Amino acid sequence: MSTPKLAELPPVEGAWVEIDCQSQQLRLWQGRSVVHECAISTGVNGVGEEEGSGRTPRGWHYVRAAIGEGLPENAVFRGRRFTGEVFTPMLAKAHPERDWILTRILWLCGLERGVNRGGRVDSQRRYIYLHGTPPDEPMGVAASHGCIRVRNADLLTLFAAAPPGTPVWLHGESLA
């Protein structure tokens, strides 16, 4: 999959999100200006679109759903539902097997048929999210099961600025 340069992208009005899987960075853009940037963690298995791969999909997506409005920071989710728990180190110690999905969820839907939408490459059916993660999880290195892990404070900023419908571009090469 070839990655276009920023100048080659179609014009995007308003807010949009760039996820650079190579540099493990997320950028929140307002038109052609970066308004927020942070380290993230994408799939430990690299980039790829295939269901069951544990990889982070590439291409154009949009925020399909924003989940968790009004819940406390560190709210725990399972199956996109609030469990009633709030993450603490003690809770983590009691459940070391959990892949923690915290604070908010931005659920992605692919826009490119055959690339990240439909069949065995459907990002929405793969449950690809941007979500919060415990403070001891590494950022800036690929370590997730395919989703995009974001520090809670950065996720709250993103959640406020990127409502459902916001374009999201995931790629494996940096912009130059």
Automatic annotation (TrEMBL):
<dbReference type="Pfam" id="PF03734">
    <property type="entry name" value="YkuD"/>
</dbReference>
<feature type="active site" description="Proton donor/acceptor">
    <location>
        <position position="131"/>
    </location>
</feature>
<feature type="active site" description="Nucleophile">
    <location>
        <position position="147"/>
    </location>
</feature>
<dbReference type="InterPro" id="IPR050979">
    <property type="entry name" value="LD-transpeptidase"/>
</dbReference>
<comment type="pathway">
    <text>Cell wall biogenesis; peptidoglycan biosynthesis.</text>
</comment>
<keyword id="KW-0328">Glycosyltransferase</keyword>
<keyword id="KW-0133">Cell shape</keyword>
<comment type="similarity">
    <text>Belongs to the YkuD family.</text>
</comment>
<protein>
    <submittedName>
        <fullName>L,D-transpeptidase</fullName>
    </submittedName>
</protein>
<keyword id="KW-0573">Peptidoglycan synthesis</keyword>
<keyword id="KW-0378">Hydrolase</keyword>
<keyword id="KW-0808">Transferase</keyword>
<dbReference type="InterPro" id="IPR038063">
    <property type="entry name" value="Transpep_catalytic_dom"/>
</dbReference>
<feature type="domain" description="L,D-TPase catalytic">
    <location>
        <begin position="15"/>
        <end position="171"/>
    </location>
</feature>
<dbReference type="InterPro" id="IPR005490">
    <property type="entry name" value="LD_TPept_cat_dom"/>
</dbReference>
<keyword id="KW-0961">Cell wall biogenesis/degradation</keyword>
